Hints:
The protein is mainly alpha-helical. The chain has five helices and no strands.
Amino acid sequence: MAVIDWEQFNDNFQYYDKSIILEVINIFFEEYDDRIATLQKNINENDFASLAFNAHSLKSVIANYMAPSAYECTRKLEELAKNNSGDGIKEVFSQLKSTTQELIHELGDYVQKLE
Length: 115
């Protein structure tokens, strides 16, 4: 099953030139490892304020790609951080990494089709 809702994705990007779509996706690819490492650091340090901010930022990026499962993981992570709750945070983060890896894979396949 696809992580990306392709109908919504195509609606979202229908007015954009192919080069812009590729640029937006490539920026996500380039920033991904640093974003995940930062979230991991925030979790390890119980820095809930930074975690809430960084999860929100990633959630905003993921929203562009119409990937509801990945979006929901970032929303949960942000909510836990805002509530200063470490309960379940590692599980949610693990789910986030898994779903975002699937997102990256699907976007990678899409980029190959565009090029």
